[in-house]
Amino acid sequence: MIFEIGEEDIPKLEAVAQDYVQNHHDESLTLDRIINYLKQVISSGGVYVMGHKTNEMVDGFILMQKHGEISAYHVKADNEETRADIERLLFSSAIDKLKDSVEAITYSDSKGISSLRSIFEEAEFESYDRASMYVSKEDIKFPEERNLPEEYELTDFSLNMNVDLAEVVYDANKGQVDSKIYHKYFGSEKNAEMFVEKFAGGAFGKYKEGLAKVILYKSQPVAACFMVLATQKTAAVSELAVGSKHKRKGLGTKVLVESIKTSFELPDVEEIGLHVTLSNPAKQMYDKFGFIERYQYTIYVKNFT
Question: Which of 187, 212, 276, 280 is least crowded, fewest Cβ atoms below 10 Å from its Cβ?
């Protein structure tokens, strides 16, 4: 049986939440953390949480952001057949709950669960394989130094660039695969404005002045590397964008190089991380820089626009 979980139902989740903790790779995760998180997100009103129960015992839950991202789920089952049946019911309920109120539904599967692939294929989702990639300070391979054409100027990101940079981000991704995967950030100019605001607000990692670099053309941004501090030791590329009229001029490489160099000047930063769609031509550039895949995952997407 599928039901929507409210604050009053959270104590019923303890058994399945404990199973989630025991089977999770993060050793710092505790039952109290999971329960407190669920209380917080449900009370915030920004999520839906659906549960499944068998004989009045809750044995599965799925958490959905109201903007369309399915962000977490877990099933406690004695065998794989039962697990797959409950997964199908949970994901089907999540899709039904979201489909009439969002522009797109997404789910990121880092475990390669075959039963999920069949669920999303039946629901006519598209799938995209992506990689998490990293390079250390010792292993970075910078390309041969090239000066920018004289009409371009390198500078630091600043908050007064938000609107102009949003236009660059939208233009760079328009019609590209990442605009389908991350429609909520790249699917429109308004969505791109939200991306830049979230970047500056620390949603993707700590914003530190000077790490993110921008290239100007006639005083207007045309390329940017949105670099943040993911952890004390890791800087991360949230987005690399070059306006469509300024591609194939080495601007993406240049702005990435300068952001990486500045990041490695920080004494504690040991590596740079990023995520990239495997079919994105930018992956070839990251390979040349020495980035190595740490893991791959699949994102399932269904757009309704």
Answer: 280
Of 230, 254, 251, nearest to 242 by C-alpha is 251
- From residue 266, give the alpha-carbon distance in Å to each of 41, 214, 229, 233, 260: 35, 19, 10, 9, 10
pTM beyond cutoff 0.70: yes
Q: Report which residue type is found at 84.
A: A
Side chain identity at residue 240, one-letter code: L
On the CB side of 281, CA atoms within 13 Å amount to 8
Backbone angles phi, psi at 111, to 5 degrees: -105, -10
pLDDT tens-place string over residues 185-244 = 998 999 999 999 999 999 999 999 999 999 999 999 999 999 999 999 999 999 999 999
Which whole-number Å values give the CA distances from 169 to 165, 166, 183, 200, 251, in the listed order?
A: 6, 5, 12, 14, 14
| CA nearest neighbour of 64 among 108, 98, 102, 109 | 98
Q: Which CATH number fits domain 2-102: 3.40.630.30, 3.30.450.90, 1.10.3860.10, 3.40.50.2300?
A: 3.40.630.30
| Ranges for all domains in the chain classified under CATH 3.40.630.30 | 2-102, 133-296
Q: String of b and e for 127-166 (b: at least 16 CB within 10 Å)?
A: ebebbbbbbeeeebeeeeeeebeeebeeeebeeebbebbb
Give the number of other CB atoms < 10 A from CB of residue 174: 14
CATH number of 133-296: 3.40.630.30
Q: How does residue 25 score in pLDDT terms, banded at 50, 70 and 90?
A: low
Residue 147 contacts residue 140 (beta carbons within 8 Å): no
